Structure formats: C-alpha cells, structure tokens
Amino acid sequence: MTPERKYEPFRKVMVPIVDGCDPTASLTVAKLVADEDHLLLAALIPVPEGQSLSGGAARAQGLRRFLSKFPRAERIRPQVSHHPWTELASLIKEMKPDLLILEWPATLEALGVNPDEFLAKPPCDIALVRGPIAPRPRNILVSIRGGPYSELALRMGLVAAEAVGARLNSLHVRSPETAHTNSQRRVAQKREAAFKGIAAVLANLPEVNQHHLTTEIPSEAIVRFSRRSDFVIIGSTAQYGKPGLPFGATANRILKESKKGVIIVKTKRPVPANLQQEAIGQRAISVLVDKWFAENTYHADEFADLAHLKRIKEREGLSISLAMPALNEQRTVGKVIRSLQKALVGARLVDEIVLIDSGSTDKTREIAAGLGIPVYIHQEILPQYGARHGKGEALWKSLYVTRGDLILWIDTDIVNISPKFVYGLIGPLLVNPQLQFVKGFYRRPLHAGSRLQAAGGGRVTELTARPLLNLFYPELSGVIQPLAGEYGGRRRMLERLSFFSGYGVETGLLIDAFEQHGLSAIGQVDLQERIHHNQPLEALSLMSFAIIQVMISRLEKRYGREILQDVNKTMKLIRYSDERFFLDVEEISELERPPMAELPEYVKDRRNS
Questions:
Q1: Which of 29, 478, 546, 582 has the fewest Cβ atoms within 10 angstroms?
Q2: Which contiguous run of DSSP H or E holds residue 556?
Q3: pTM, whole model, 2 decimals?
Q4: What would the pLDDT profile of 502-520 be if each residue is shown by its tens digit?
Q5: Is the torsion defined by CA of 527, 528, 534, 535 positive or negative?
C-alpha cells in the first residue's frame, strides 16, 4: 500500500515533446512532481515556413512511438505545424495545466518563442529546466530570497523531495544594506519583508534544512551551495526588459555557472507594481496549510475499533471525560445519552459522562438524571465567581466538575447521534501524542420549508468565521468547521486557556490553541453528517456579532491595542410587527473567563483528587 503523501503532487503537468529536442530533463522533473497519470505529453513537429507539412509525417510516427513509452500519461497526438507555439498555446488554453515544464533554451527556440515575451506573460505556471536532472536526487536545493515565486519553488522542492526521499535544503541569501545605493537598499528591505511570510512557513517544516547567508553577491553563494545538491530550484525575477537577462541577473548567472541542474519557476499570476512585498510572502502560507491538512485531517471510521483505542488509553494511563452542554433539549437528550452510554461507557473507553445544564425549563435534567448521568446546573458551579449566560460558561465550568485527562464536548441536539461523534474525537488524541486539540467537521443539512439541502448548514461558519480566519489567521484556513460543537482536547492545555462565555467560545479556543501550541497541535476529524435543529436567521446574526467581537479581542491581544469599546457591544436588531419596522437593542457582550488553572479552588481540588 502506497503511503499517503503529505504534499499533494501537481494535478496536471504538461510537457511539450518537440521534435529535435531532448525532453529527458523535463520528463524527469515532471515525474518528480506529478504521478504519471497526471502528465500531459504534447507532441509537436515544427516545419519551417515554405516547406510542406507532409514532410513531418515520418517524424510524427517517431514521436508516437516515443509517447507509447508512457501508457499512463495523457498523450496528445502529434501536431505538425509551421507555428508550433500557436498550437501549444491553444492546447494550454484548452487543457489548463497546473504547470508547464520546458527545456531551456532548446524547446523555446524550437517553438520559435521570444523568451522575453514568454516570461513576461506566461500562459500558466511554468518551470524552465536546464539539465542534468538526476531521476532519484539525494539533495535538492531551493533558493528562497522572498520574491513572488518563492511559494512555487518551495512547493516543487517539497513534492520532489518527498517523492524520492531526498534531503531538501533551503537557502535564504540576504544582501548587506550598507553595500547598496538607496534604491538598492529599498529593494533589499522589501525582499526581506516578503521573506517573513516564507519564514513563518519554514518554521513549521522541520524536514527542510534551512541555511541563511548575508553576502554582496547572492548568485555566487547560490552557485557554491548548488555544488552540494543534485539540482537547484529558484524563482525568476518579477521584472523583465533587460536584453540578455530574461530571468534577472542572479538566475542567469546560476544558469550559466552551475554545473548541476537548474529549474527556474514563474507563476502565471501577475505581480502588480503597487503590491506590498509582505503580501507576496504570505501566499506561501498555503504550503503550510496544505501540509497540515494532509497530516492532521482524520476520518471517524479510522477509529471504529474501540478495543484498540481502549488498549492505547490504558497503556498511556489516560482517563476520558465527556461533558454535554444542554438547554431545553428534552426531545434529543435521552437518545444521545443512551447511545453513548451503551457504546462508550460499556466498552470502558469513556470513564464519565456529565450533563452541564444551563437552566432548562423542560425535562432535560430529569431525563438525564433518570439515565444515571450526573447533572450540573452551570449557574450553580463556582457560585463565588457569579453566574453568566452562555454555552462557553458551561464548557468552562465543566473543567471543574470532570476528572478526565482528555475532555470531549458534544452538543445534545444531535438528531442522528452515533458513537462515532465521540470516538472520532478520541482517536486522534490517542494515536497522535502531539495533538492537543481536535475539532469535528461534517455535512450539515439545512431544512428549507419541506426541502432538505444536503450541505446548506453552517451559515455562520461560511459567512463569518472562516472569512475572518482566512483574513487574520490564514494558518487556520484549513479548519473546515471552526464553530463545530463537537471537539475536545487534553486537560493540561484546556485548563490553561481562557473561555469566552457565549457564542464566541469555539473561535476563542481555536485561536488560543493555535497561538499557544502551534498549528501542528490542532487536528480535525470527519464525523460525516450531523442533523440538528437549524437556528433562525436572527439568532445567526447574534452569533456572528459575538464571533466578530472575539476575533477583534484576539487581534487586540496580539497587537496590544484596544479597538472595541463597551458601546460597540450592543446590536440593533430590525424587527417587524403590526405592519411596521422598528429597532430593538440587544447586548451581546462576549465576556471572558480566566484559565481554570488560575483558580485556587481548582488547583486545590486537583491536588486532592
């Protein structure tokens, strides 16, 4: 069985096979960064103007024989043309490859392409290859100076190194500011600012061996380092127009002087003249998010063997608590408890289940107590600290009344309850000791009148939470459902986090877990589908308002600057009654509870337990 890749290979890579040109280096690179069945091989036979195209028949037969050596690739029949570049450009437009790999300079010359025009406006992301390229490299060098194409260079290096188990080295060469004119110094400063985004990614990639140098002649240092590698990957310059320097001075010198293979990359995406260099570097964050998503995304079905989970739990000497917040859930709470009691407590995987009620006025508490579940009213726990409304308050106080080393929370309004909602969360924490916090995700059907939309739920997630995380915490952009009510973590982490009392508790915990422990400490698990009672639009508006407050609160903490005042924490709701619109004011103030580990009562209780 082939192990799952951490770094996704390129999905569609095109390699032009041009008559008269040796495609060995391009094909070698293509096989390193993409599976063979994701290769597009486009055969082209250039015929000079004035000569009959029929003269290319024999050469077309030869190329068809060559293409037959790649049975899994998508092979495009040979094109015989006076204008081969026009043919290739049409194919690129039709096939939309993720990456075009060309030999430099032979293929461009054979196609009759002007290098400056091609590089100024490439038809897609490109990699220009100058051999030799080892088919199974042992050492790969990626030169990262912070330019706009560093992300593509790093991605190619990571995919290629993983494919063959090669050692990947990154080289960051900075120029001494004192050695430049004012104009050159500004360029160097912008490049260093852009490198910050790449540096944040590299800090989370232990498989990359980082090297940093300060020198007046960057190209000389890169050439020197390339001698220790099988080939070097470098981004092209963002600006063109100097005759004889199509890639910029540094890349051109490396092409000329390095005796090892060289790959020069450039993205199709244009670089506007006014684009902040800092933003360029931040694009590389997608490499980090892709890696996290591949490594830390699980499926509940992976953990269906409860006996196996129990053996790990006992071997590690861990105990597990399940706390269920509830408010007027008499319709579903009984089924939820019975399902989890039988499967999880009966299997001795979960050690305790408790209900944390928030003042239900129906029979929620009676039903839970009748099933032998300890019931707590969160307003009565730690009364000396006052009673607040909100789910977050119930979760915070559940830390005080539970005993487990691992603490899981699930909502009690789940119609299609299944034990996988719990063991799916337990599994990643048991099999991966590095994980501190695990979030569930699922499809959420939305009832629209008599119709059921299969994936219409999660409206606050998609319209508020995820856009804000993408904007301010892009590292968390791979979290599919940051607001999911099914999640948990290790007590030693949770007891050191502060809890928002209301709707914003999930957002606050996720951001704090990331800020304090890093992205690699967070996991997510597919729980498949969750059916529950959908909230009306007005309630969703209040949730969004609370989540935005939490986000701003965390940004205030990060930057040490107050943005919101108390006056900003009331929301005017538009209501309609008696054929008229009017305004109603509701206060939605997300108050914060301190880490439980800071409460003397908790410390004393844990010491005595």
A1: 582
A2: helix 537-559
A3: 0.67
A4: 889 999 999 999 999 989 8
A5: positive
